[in-house]
Amino acid sequence: MLYYRRKILLALLEMFGGKLSAIQLQKYLFLFTRNQMTRAFSFVPYKYGCFSFQANQDMTTLGTYGYVEECDNGYVLKNHGNYLAQLDMFDQQLMRNIYDEFGQMSQNELVRHIYVKYPFYAINSTIASTLLSPDEMEKVNAQRPRKSGRKLFTIGYEGVTLEDYLKRLLLEDVHVLCDVRKNAFSQKYGFNKSQLENACKSVGIRYVHVPDLGIESDKRQDLRSQHDYDILFAEYDRTIIPQNQQALRYVYDLILKEERVALTCFEKDPKQCHRSRVAKALMDMANNQYTSNNIVFNVK
Q1: What is the tens place of the pLDDT at every residue in 195-245?
Q2: What is the C-alpha to C-alpha distance for residues 115 and 125, in angstroms, rounded to an integer?
Q3: For the chain, does the N or the C end have fewer beta carbons within 10 angstroms?
Q4: Could you say which of 3.30.360.10, 3.40.1010.10, 3.40.50.10350, 3.40.50.300 is the CATH number of the domain covering 151-294?
Q5: End-to-end alpha-carbon separation of the chain, Å?
Q6: How confident is the model at residue 287 (pLDDT cuts 50, 70, 90)?
Q7: Domain ranges (residues) in the chain
Q8: Residue 5: which residues within 8 A CB-CB, separation 6 or more?
Q9: Contact present, 25 and 74 (Cβ < 8 Å)
Q10: Dist CA 131 CA 108 (whole Å)
């Protein structure tokens, strides 16, 4: 059984004649999701503009299942199935609208249109200057977050997509993401160490893993109330923090050098994540050299 979001990808390919370049697929999908009430995919500003890691992974999966074939930097639909009819009526009409409005554009015209209308998504583009006028490039550069001052952030990835997570880091102009999980493994797509490191690199954020500041997974198995978390973190303050001052100092030096650093782990609520204890220990060392803030998600 196909996930609904994968039916959207197949319907998009089908609508456009069964073959699209990878860039075209991402751009048409982006335009399609702009008008969805609940967006099926999220996007980040990437080297060719708007990009969905999830959509890219889904296309790989669809290739494995035999629905599509990768060729010539794009995709060919192998298994035709009237996928448009499998979407809800609203999305069917959106798909037709995208085809009618943009289906005759060349790839460069399509990319240029998105860069002009959505300049934030061109901030990491390697081709923007070849497609846009100087005035249009100024608008792109104006969208690039530039925030001054040293600041320590904390951020959890529970309940959010990789793309929205990265977007929040970009909007706060975070320079370094510091992963304080003991084991940087996750069943959630995009948050294994290698996936997260590569994704961060692709949008200009440095990733570092500091496992010495993590908590063994077996100590987190029976946490049912805030009281349980408080007991665990009290032990963390008594043991892990004092025993790992070198790791803590490493993060402290990162903040002084790189200025805007985010600590990350899984939990959405910082009161239920040891990153808040790491942040407190770092703030105790700060001596007014930086401030701290938890990143809250409100990305649409």
Answers
A1: 999 999 999 999 999 999 999 877 777 777 888 888 888 999 999 999 999
A2: 9
A3: N
A4: 3.40.1010.10
A5: 28
A6: confident
A7: 4-142, 151-294
A8: 40, 41, 54, 55, 58
A9: yes
A10: 7
Query: Partners of 275 in the beta sheet?
Result: none
> CA-to-CA distance for 259 and 149, rounded, in angstroms?
7
CB burial of 186-220 (b: ≥16 within 10 Å; e: otherwise) equals eeeebbebebbbebbebbebebbbbeebbbeeeeb
Please count the other Cβ atoms lying within 10 Å of the Cβ belonging to residue 37: 6
Give me the half-sphere count of Cα atoms (radius 13 Å) on the Cβ side of residue 117. Answer: 11
Q: How many C-beta atoms lie closer than 10 Å to residue 229's C-beta?
A: 19
Distance between CA 11 and CA 89 in Å, rounded? Answer: 13
pLDDT grade for 299, boundaries at 50, 70 and 90: very low
3-state SS assignment for residue 20:
strand
Q: Is the pTM of this model over 0.85?
A: yes
| pLDDT, tens digit, 9 for 90 and up, residues 139-178 | 999 999 999 999 999 999 999 999 999 999 999 999 999 9
Q: How many angstroms from the chain centroid is the CA of residue 227?
A: 32
pLDDT mean across residues, the chain: 94
Place of tokens 């440095």: 206
Non-local CB neighbours of 45 within 8 Å, separated by 6+ positions: 51, 120, 121, 122, 123, 124, 125, 170, 203
Do 15 and 77 form a contact (C-beta atoms < 8 A)?
Answer: no
Contact 47, 56 (CB under 8 A): no
Kindly give, in sequence order, each residue whose CB lies less than 8 Å from that of residue 36, ignoring residues fewer than 6 positions away.
90, 91, 94
Q: Which residues contact 6 (CB under 8 A, 6 or more apart)?
A: 58, 61, 62, 67
